[in-house]
Amino acid sequence: VFPESSLKVTGVDFRKSQNTQEHHTDGYNIKNLVVRRGKPFQLQVSLNRELRAADKLSLHFGIGENPLKNNGSLLSLKPEREDFNGWKISIVKKNGTECLLSVTSSPNAPVGKYNLHVKTGTNIYKPENGVIYLLFNPWCEDDVVYMASEAQKKEYVLSDTGYIYVGSAYSIYDRPWNFGQFEEFILDACMYLLDKSKLSLSDRRDPANVSRAMSALVNANDDNGVLLGNWSGNYISGTSPMDWIGSVTILQQYYKTKKPVRYGQCWVFAGVLNTVMRCLGVPSRCVSTFDSAHDTEENLRVDVYLNERGEKLNSLSLDSVWNFHVWNDVWMKRADLPEGFHGWQAIDSTPQEQSQGRFQCGPCPVKAVREGDVYLPYDSKFVYAEVNADKVYWMVRKVNGKDKYFKVGTETQAIGKNISTKAVGQNRREDITREYKYPEGSKEERMSMQRANSFIRPSGFVPRSGYASTVQPFGATVQPLVLKEPVTKSGLHLEITNTEALHPGNPLEMAITVKTSTPGNWTVELTGSCQLQYYTGKVQANLGTIKETINLEGTSEMQIPLKIAPDAYMKTLSSMEGEVLILVTAVAEVKQTNDKLTKETSMRFQYPPITVQMPETAKLYNDFTCALIFKNKLNVTLENCKLLVEGLGIFKMTTFEQGDITPGRIMKSEIICTPTRLGEKKIIAKLISNQIKGISTEKAITITD
């Protein structure tokens, strides 16, 4: 070799195995190198001759379609030189024609895909698979997503399965969900969303901007995003929101077709957004709020209208109370906000209301919600109202042929209960209500509420339904918001319970307990109703009502049964697609004092379980058998049964048609699983039929070498 022969690169080794282990990215199922920002990674460059002092060697990292030096999208790095945009490279060691380089990206570098070229003199070498994926880094103290606790990072960044909590405040249950952020094409789907978001290069540095953009792109409403929302009950032209058990199929289908996937409801949006944020390296968790207010006017009040039989009316309310709503919290330091608002930030991709002209929501500091600082960006008034609104009940009565509205109750502590997420490192629900609000009735809560009220204009107690505004409301004086539950002279109190398990096909047996607690003789007029409703609060069927007059003396109580025969609800239940709940409403009026009290409780149906039989451990690439068993212990035939099964790293998402399962029949399905990854893996299964919209189960197995 002549000494003056020009220096050429003959190969680049991305040292994938070592780099990805150090960067906690070895889980990603992708050919390319995936690293996190702010942490060094190594590249080995092979040359056609030894590197000499006079040689010029530089690494070029380009991001975007047309990388340019002057706007920072092209980085030209020379060893041992001053850093460039916070990046630097150094030579670790030279060994003959091999040169080991260490590259450290800036801890606030834009996240995305960087194309690597190696320049030697006038020669440019373009390695195969030369695109490097750069993610946020919760392990780096200088990254704004830095999270100190290893256990939390394991849960909120690396865990690819979890639970989403649904049901009602009266009966919460967990729905297992596969996030699957490491599965094939998921990272590419997230990179596609980043490109689609049209975020500027500098916006890509900040997880606040990225998470806001992702909250918009996970719904399809104004940007052809991932999921189309549908709450109509008709899902013929797509997949029912109840039929998903994870995000993988959704994101893979979206990446392949580039068209919105049909259909999602709130827990599906939250599951997918959780996958996207974890995949990009931002710590993220799914958060469920029970009795969440969807208030269209930011006036901290939800009006519920009842007819004279005590049945809830749909048509009158613009606002609503959802039995549960699921969004996400992402973890970051907010560079754009004053001190004290770092940590968890709420983001929500369920399309409800536009924010700055798009269906996006957040990031809103959870601490701002708790303190009542609802002027802080983004959308903090909206999130505050979701967990803090008051609930006012109105009864619509005909007086001289005209509708009149009578207030029959106010609840100040009914909204935003049991705020839940999966506990760190454990398969159980953690209640995080305290992170969102101070204890009800505490001094801090009152101060927080007064602060919030100084930014939100409450509109006093006037009914504001679609056409109620045309009616002269009674007592139209504007009162301040009530901070405490009204105490009645009779000490009236209502409780609603189920007295038997609520199995589809059986009578629904419930009870309303009326209590008084002050001396005197009290005559109580009780109106009770039972309805079927979707989790969004939309009533689908009236099942029955009761009207009783009861006499109570001093401190005493009486239990009034409310029983609904199977014939009264089974037909409606079978025709309803979606998360169905039983709503019981009770209105009590005390004759002597004119005290009024309204209480409602939503309950969910209870189902027999699916059991999973499989070994506790298995060896990598060695098949094992998994059996799924379900016995129909109900009194009804379950029609059109489908069994959905997915196990990340062990079994690809599959749907098994099971036909009809008659009462007492046992269904048994066996699948053969091939583990392709080490560690703890889970099988998730779900059974769906016309009568039952989802019995889920899961089982873990440890895969060893």
UniProtKB/TrEMBL annotation:
The EC number(s) this enzyme carries: 2.3.2.13
Residues binding Ca(2+): N388, D390, E440, E445
Molecular function GO terms recorded: metal ion binding; protein-glutamine gamma-glutamyltransferase activity
Residues that span the membrane, as ranges: none
Superkingdom, taxonomy of origin: Eukaryota
Residue ranges of every copy of the Transglutaminase-like domain listed in the record: 258-351
InterPro entries: Ig-like_fold, Ig_E-set, Papain-like_cys_pep_sf, Transglutaminase, Transglutaminase-like, Transglutaminase-like_sf, Transglutaminase_animal, Transglutaminase_AS
Pfam families noted in UniProt: Transglut_C, Transglut_core, Transglut_N
Stated name of the protein: Protein-glutamine gamma-glutamyltransferase 4
Species of the source: Picathartes gymnocephalus (White-necked rockfowl)
Gene label: Tgm4
